[in-house]
Amino acid sequence: MHIKYHPDIDALYIGLNERVKSKTRQITDSIVLDFDVDDKLIGIEILAASESVADPVAIAHEILSEASERPDPEAIRAGRRAMAAARKAKHSEKSKSS
Fold first, then answer.
1. Strand 31-35 to 11-15 pairing
2. Cα separations in angstroms, 18 against 9, 27, 81
3. Which residues contact 40 (CB under 8 A, 6 or more apart)?
4. Domains of the chain by residue range
5. How far apart are CA 38 and CA 88, in angstroms?
6. Fewer beta carbons within 10 Å, N or C terminal of the chain?
C-alpha cells in the first residue's frame, strides 16, 4: 500500500497494490475508485483533499516514513504552502464567480 499527496492538483491517492488500472468509477464529486481488469479495487483518489482530509501532506509523509525513512521537514512545509495556495486560489475563484 502507498499513499501519495499531489499538492499541484490537491489530490490524495491511496494505492492498495501495484496492479494496473483498467477502469475508474467516480462515486462522489471528490472520490474516485480505480479497478483492475478483474474488477478488484486497487486505488482510491480523494479530490480536493485539503477540504476533506485534516492534513493530507502529513498523512502521506507519515505513511512514507513508516515504510522507509523520516520525511524531509522542508518537503512537508512546501506541501502545506502549496495546499494553502491552492485553497486561496479556489476561494478567490469562488469570490469572482459570485
1. unpaired
2. 22, 22, 30
3. 19
4. 2-97
5. 41
6. C
68 or 81, which is more confident: 81
Average pLDDT for 1-19:
87
* Type of residue numbered 81: R
- Cα 68 from Cα 75, distance rounded (Å): 15
Residue with cell 483498467: 22
What single-letter amino acid sits at 63?
I
92 versus 36: the higher-pLDDT residue is 36
What sign has the CA pseudo-torsion 28, 34, 39, 41?
A: negative
> What's the pTM value of the predicted model, to 2 decimals?
0.60
Q: Which three cell numbers stand for residue 84?
A: 494553502
Residue bearing cell 523520516: 70
